Amino acid sequence: MTVTTGSIRGSKKIHVGPRKVAMREIHLEPGSGEPPVRVYDTSGPYTDPDARIDIMAGLQQLRRDWIIERGDVEDYDARAIKPEDNGLKGPDRSGGVQPFPNVVQRPLRAKPGANVSQMHYARRGIITPEMEYVAERENLGRARLAEYVRDGQSWGASIPDYVTPEFVRDEVARGRAIIPSNINHPESEPMAIGRNFLVKINANIGNSAVASDVAAEVDKLVWSIRWGADTVMDLSTGRNIHDTREWILRNSPVPIGTVPIYQALEKVGGIAEDLTWDVFRDTLIEQAEQGVDYFTIHAGVRLAYIPMAAKRVTGIVSRGGSIMAKWCLAHHRESFLYEHFDEITEIMKAYDIAYSLGDGLRPGSIADANDEAQFSELYTLGELTHRAWKQDVQVMIEGPGHVPMHKIKENMEKQLQVCGEAPFYTLGPLTTDIAPGYDHITSGIGAAQIGWYGTAMLCYVTPKEHLGLPDRDDVKVGVVTYKLAAHAADLAKGHPAAQVRDDALSRARFEFRWRDQFNLSLDPETAEQYHDQTLPAEGAKSAHFCSMCGPKFCSMKITQEVRDFAAKKNQAADGFLEAGLTGAEVAQASKAAALKGMEEMSRLFKATGSELYMGAGGREHD
Amino acid sequence: MTVTTGSIRGSKKIHVGPRKVAMREIHLEPGSGEPPVRVYDTSGPYTDPDARIDIMAGLQQLRRDWIIERGDVEDYDARAIKPEDNGLKGPDRSGGVQPFPNVVQRPLRAKPGANVSQMHYARRGIITPEMEYVAERENLGRARLAEYVRDGQSWGASIPDYVTPEFVRDEVARGRAIIPSNINHPESEPMAIGRNFLVKINANIGNSAVASDVAAEVDKLVWSIRWGADTVMDLSTGRNIHDTREWILRNSPVPIGTVPIYQALEKVGGIAEDLTWDVFRDTLIEQAEQGVDYFTIHAGVRLAYIPMAAKRVTGIVSRGGSIMAKWCLAHHRESFLYEHFDEITEIMKAYDIAYSLGDGLRPGSIADANDEAQFSELYTLGELTHRAWKQDVQVMIEGPGHVPMHKIKENMEKQLQVCGEAPFYTLGPLTTDIAPGYDHITSGIGAAQIGWYGTAMLCYVTPKEHLGLPDRDDVKVGVVTYKLAAHAADLAKGHPAAQVRDDALSRARFEFRWRDQFNLSLDPETAEQYHDQTLPAEGAKSAHFCSMCGPKFCSMKITQEVRDFAAKKNQAADGFLEAGLTGAEVAQASKAAALKGMEEMSRLFKATGSELYMGAGGREHD
């Protein structure tokens, strides 16, 4: 039973500060004179060669002592597991996944009258270890920045030069950020989702049709966080979901989110109308005790909004939304999610579970974007946000969907206004409907923009969206695509030091430090593999030109020659104009360089032994 | 000797109007009651089963008569081909590509004193057949739209409800659009590049290191236009480029662009300082006679700007730009491109070649975006635009490069202002530097945005950007990515009827017309292949749910049930609230549906015979 381990190439795991915050440090070629680059690390101990990984034991409980020391929790006898928790009609577990060994029999909850939410502490002025961890993590261990010039357009965000624990506390207290951290998930490494922090991404996983090897199930999580998923939603349905969820939580260093209505629906045989508050409530307790960090609750689907959605081109595309819509129609009343919302909140605060208020009426096509149904629900989500905040419970808001570019900003503006700046958690949005098979890109375009406008977390979309179930490669492509979209948003918002990694990679590119380029990229393996498809020879990794242009046409090489020339003349770049007078020297130098380069290039090309399909075309620089 | 042929699946080639404008018509399932969807078609006769393809003969000369009938051209003895035209030291062509049979020995040029540019005709109030062709093509054969509500934010563009030949003439006359159409490339199907027309994309191709099979070279063009490239740039270098270019032009239905300085540099042994105006001028004539439709000319690289670029993180990344920079320094004078610009314009107007004024100083990294060097050059490009317009020569302007999202709009605004609304032709821009291997996406994000802001043509970027040479698959991914970015821009700008295809696909999606979904998508093969990886059974193509959720959780199915219920009650959607009273019927109906669906689903799942990696997770709708 194994999962994917091993350090990400070219980098090593470090632990920074008193809270031992996990980060990744990318080391560059010694000759470069460049310092290591620290990057945000979501991958947990799995990428730490020094860590001992045993999924049977689960991860270390980083937060256990922090939680206990607050003195406001009690343990109690866990709710008894029922066969239907695993989608079974009887107690027989044959063919199911094996139960996690040593399941906690006495989970934690808030003492009577207590509230263990991070928001509650924040509002009482308490800076928790979780907040300290987040501050260190968001700063990537750097000290206050003097050297970097702030740049970017933040659309009204309040991004500080330096994140202090007090800033984190204040953001959580105001509801502008959440730290999803169920007290029964002490294995999680604290992270913040908020407009004034780095943009985060979520990856969805789900159990397989035939789940038997739990390591394979856990590896879906491990694989997602290896490439950068900040949180993971377990959208499993069908059999064995309780046991599978236990395996995932015990081995997850990132917050885990779920949509409890799915499991509740399974318990009533898949018939939406048979759902009841009791079944749902029991499911919330079941998952709360396991340690789920945030729940998607579609409480905004109100009876009066359903007819608005029925008129649409694609109706209701949210599963949870359609389930509740059907329930509402069948019973002709408001959903139990809406009617029992405050009771749900009571449960949330006893475990510090964050709300992810679901957008059950989000548009599923360009035609339905920003319509009456969507915004009506958003207003209700705003109402519910303030109701949850009354009890100091953390909230984020889910958003669309399919939205053309010119309608994206309105979504962000309305959400900020209606939901009091509670973090926005959007899916894409997809900016066109006509590219199935490429919807990680149609949505990446929208995700980068809405992230720039202020969305705090982006839910990934894979190439298989609308078509089928993503495989391992699809998940990686989806995560990396969203990671680059989130980073593009951080750059545009002007997050301090976001550009450090871009600059380091660009310098490596300019100086032909190929390995540094690979190691600084979001996906080093793919970068190197693409490079080697054209120039596999080892020498090519130090060649002072690349396969796209060759030595004669290498613009970077020419620029370097120009610089060297200036240096030789002991002149600043500004001296070029005069320097040009002795241009004959440039000619001589570069003639030699070109000839030498040509020999080297032809040697390398021969080494490939294969024809190059596109030749010198198909690359950006002309 | 063959190239890729055959119709694009699910669609057939049609020819519309008196000018027989080629379009593609996607036919949907008869049962759907949906009309065929007409889409813009760049693929030429290669996707027409009725067309006889013979690359030895070249394509039919659609425009030949139009050009002759204008009575302002003369034929003359072509410039004699020299060995160095093919990068050879001697006349020996062994190992080279075979020459195209029946090369035109007497090319056309304007009669003395005449000007054959489309802009010249436009400014004299003449509507050419090319302009008529473009009008029909941009309208996709539709009549004036009454039924569509215009939507979108065009940022000051002037997009008409309906494109008339007179509108095309006026746009060309004002310099806001170009119709690249060298009189020696009569095989081209006229197309317009302009802010008020559909956003276009360009693909780059280049000759292979070892070119022998000319069909393989021609197929790079055919493959690019099959997936949607509106123009193709031949960026070949090295040997056989003259002959390869001849094969490409004679078989190309789209305008071909080149960067003549590349070939000129080859002729002087790759030593930039040895370039002369005479060598360059001779190269322009050589390519003009072959029929190249637009030339990238880096005349904006002025001596005084070079020191600004040398200070950058990535210096000069444009090949043409670096070549000219080196020449300027070596000779300490303004480039021959700048000094002889008006003479170049004389040549352009004699063949109707459009300028693509190159941005030799574009930023090659986030750090260098929007800097002094870049914008200084842009101002010079503005000056040159107006100089070219004095002689009625068509102009477009090349743009960046690497630009973070918050700095993209400034590029568009400055270009519109400085270059008098001449069409902008941008590369990406890439919105971050940290994702080599995914730069089709980092740039697709920027491309969609700048296309929305007003860029007329987007130069594609492939996944191999910065790393290696794209293969056939990379080219397809690059083209499709840019096609979806351009379409997202058309939607956001509010092009009339741009949303027709999105709506048709979304209706197909909602009604589970899988084949229609595939056929309406930009890449039907990939869409179907992804679908079949999860549910290969034929029945799955008509299954009324998809693999992501299964029948119990299928939101679209539930919405449909809700609608059917309303219909049964003979009520409008608005009647749902009352209808809800008899919700028991919904319950009954859906209970049966769910059970039936479950059986069907399990049968289909069994049919796959394989475990589904990600299970029900990893898809957008919760």
TrEMBL record, chains A, B:
Principal EC category: lyase
Reactions it catalyzes: 5-amino-1-(5-phospho-beta-D-ribosyl)imidazole + S-adenosyl-L-methionine = 4-amino-2-methyl-5-(phosphooxymethyl)pyrimidine + CO + 5'-deoxyadenosine + formate + L-methionine + 3 H(+)
EC number: 4.1.99.17
Sequence positions that bind Zn(2+): 402, 466
Named cofactor requirement(s): [4Fe-4S] cluster
Disordered as annotated region, ranges: 82-103
Pfam families reported for this sequence: ThiC-associated (PF13667), ThiC_Rad_SAM (PF01964)
Lyase is among the record's keywords: yes
GO MF term set: 4 iron, 4 sulfur cluster binding; phosphomethylpyrimidine synthase activity; zinc ion binding
A GO cellular component entry from the record: cytosol
Ligand binding ([4Fe-4S] cluster): 546, 549, 554
Pathway(s) served: Cofactor biosynthesis; thiamine diphosphate biosynthesis
Cofactor note: Binds 1 [4Fe-4S] cluster per subunit. The cluster is coordinated with 3 cysteines and an exchangeable S-adenosyl-L-methionine.
Keywords associated with the record: 4Fe-4S, Iron, Iron-sulfur, Lyase, Metal-binding, S-adenosyl-L-methionine, Thiamine biosynthesis, Zinc
Any one of the GO BP annotations: thiamine diphosphate biosynthetic process
Composition-biased stretches (Basic and acidic residues): 82-92
Residue stretches making up the ThiC-associated domain: 10-74
Residues at which substrate binds: 204, 233, 262, 298, 318-320, 359-362, 398, 425
Entry-linked InterPro entries: ThiC (IPR037509), ThiC-associated_dom (IPR025747), ThiC/Bza_core_dom (IPR038521), ThiC/BzaA/B (IPR002817)
Similarity comment: Belongs to the ThiC family.
Subunit structure, as described in the record: Homodimer.
Listed HAMAP family: ThiC
Role: Catalyzes the synthesis of the hydroxymethylpyrimidine phosphate (HMP-P) moiety of thiamine from aminoimidazole ribotide (AIR) in a radical S-adenosyl-L-methionine (SAM)-dependent reaction.
Name of the protein described by the UniProt record: Phosphomethylpyrimidine synthase
